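Protein modeling request. Please complete all fields; requests missing the sequence field cannot be processed.
Requester role: graduate student
Desired output: 3D structure, token encoding
Chains: 1
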Amino acid sequence: MIELGSCDGGVDDAACKAYLQSARQLMTGADLALFNTALRGEGEWKRLTPVAGAPVVDIQTFLRATAFFPSGTLDGICGYRTTSAIRLFQEYVRTTVPGMTDFLPDGIWGPKCAERAKQWPAGTKADWAQWSATNPSPECAPWLKLLAQVKAKYVASPTPMLKKVDEFSKPTDTVKRAEWDFDPKKIHLIGIRRHEDMPKSENEQRFDDLFVLLIKGVAFTFFGSTEPGHTNVPAKGYPFLVIGQHRYRFGWHHVGDAQKIFQALKPATGAGVLVIRSQDLSLQDADLPAVLENAVDINVHWGGSVGAVVHGWSEGCQVIVGKAYIDHRGQLRNCAGFAALNTDTLGTTTPKGVKLTKGAYTLLSDLATALSGATPGDNIVHYMLIPEADLALVPEARQKATEALTLFGNT
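Delivered output (411 residues):
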């Protein structure tokens, strides 16, 4: 069995240390201590021998050749990126091969994975390999067009909120309009905030927003909430992430709570992202302060698998529900059979032996981790938050959003 932290017998301590050092370029110092603990277990890397199965480097070679790990390093070390690529392969098989619905994405390479790899048609790749940043899929192209149209709109005519962003003079991971970067070769996540101006009560704050991940010319769609929904009003008011672009990268959520910690997208430099405080759950221009607040703890994270009401899942974070997603072909994929309901059930095992994960959110993180480039900066997720009204700029994108909401409404 090969899993997170495994490495081939020929990988020496120097190579392991070099790998951990490279992780410093991907995570902050505070995160790295947790990364070491999670990856090293009792303090030493697990040592594998070929008799237990294919060496890690052989698995990495297979995953790279089949487009599940296109920029992967063949180092014989099963780190986060290799583990993500294994899960991508497992999820692809689960959703595309008849009779394989129980082939769950646990990130562990065992006999079932080895058997499926042997059955993989020689010379073929995952079907998303036919698309690229310069030749996007029909599912992706409207979203790239929308990003361009949104930038043109707001550069020409900024809202009062965006003017406040431009005026902010301290370091922040929120990007000013003129610097919005929609290079299709980079990773983009679009958050679509629906019903932004409608008055809301605690019970009406629901998981009803959309998220679209654009990577290597393909699009995957998720749903959740872009707005706060905590049951207790924070003393300073509810924090709403401002409309616009923000830079994120993977780190940890709930740092300091060993029982609840899990991976999440965090502000890329650690400086924070800009928010506006409101005393109710409806954001209005009247809520704009003289100077925006820079918040370091507004992450993009997982939000359970069922339930429509946001409640305590968000204190301003962007929350993605784990029970389902829409793949790059436009097909709804249900993850409810292996998605945890909450942090209490995350990582537990069902009576049928299924280990519960973050479901659809895990897929989002795996796509960004395994399909990104191998150099620092390639893993940055450029998160663009827009109001639902902006979908009117590109009718094809608005139609995609309508179709997605219908599909998610049937789960």
